[in-house]
Amino acid sequence: MPSGKSSKSKKNTSSKNQSLAFDLLSLDFSSVLIGRRYRVLRLFLWKERQFLQSIIIFFIIAGIFYPYPKVAMWLGFAFAGYSAIANDSIQTIGTFLSSNADKKWWVLWLFIGGIFLVTMTTGWIIYDGDVSFQRLQSKGFEKVPESFTFLQLAAPLVLLILTRLRMPVSTTFLLLSTFSATSSGIMSVLQKSLFGYVIAFVVSLSVWFVFAKGINNLNKGKAHPIWTALQWFTSGVLWSVWLMQDAANIAVFLPRSLSIYEFLAFVSYVFFGIGLLLYFRGGKIQNIINEKSAVKDVRGATIIDFIYAMILLFFQNLSNIPMSTTWVFLGLLAGREISMNLSPLYTTIKQKKLPIVFKLVWRDALFALLGLLISVAMAVAVNPSIQKEIMNFFNGL
Question: Is 8's pLDDT higher than 70?
Fold first, then answer.
């Protein structure tokens, strides 16, 4: 009899625990802030379960193969190849995708992918196998990796997670910083990137404010067919110039001079990755472009792409130090958005209230800063030389 009572009490306890767990899962926390966050988190984990399962598998694979340099370099490249293009797609082909939403994805793929193949082949021939356009020849990045750490292979996976969360973080900081031999290498990239943000912000603020009347008149009525041709041309130039800057983020895992077979593997993988990205129309991070003013109109998109391409060309010839093109693009969008919602001459768009505009600008800048902090933390964790520099700095205080 005692054993029967004990069994019943265990069953009752078990059923109560199950009931409590069910109540917790189904409880409506809408009146409590933490409850709302819990519901959002639970919903996110459910909706993104397949993505998260894949990421966990990739982390395990990275943990298994990072001690083997020959395998690790191609594995890291494979992770970086897709994650860098996916995150940075908003800067280069984001406006192109928004204004060509009516076109078939494979048509866009052949155009964008074709430019990629031509640009990379040109760089490989001119710079004797270097597809980074000598960006990896600058101080701190010139050494070819002879071994890899787990965090170096995990960095592109972290970038994929941040991309999924619609964070426009800098791929340059997140991917290159873990390979920098010295802190001065990271600081030079940071200085150039900050300068790029300021230049892009000032230029776009001036252009869209000074030429407000002309730009507003351009957006009136139906766009002439010539605008489509102009937009495809400017998008092609922008995409090519961007590749000259940011191909280093992908190639950092590989030898600084690629053989013909290594080069074919490099371009083939990225080419098909671009096709996958365009099939999904840029993914969730594309919303960062879509929520901005007048980007779906081919005329507005053309102006953005042209000015962005000119700014990148300026920095392309300034020095071979890598820079965050993400920061340049966010500075460009920030100045443009403020001007278009501040000037009363823009009558062809529905203007937002300035607090909303500044909130958008601040949010994008905050995500870029968050990416920088994560990048620096990973760089410090990976590089013993940087750890030593930091210890010497604090010991000298």
Answer: no
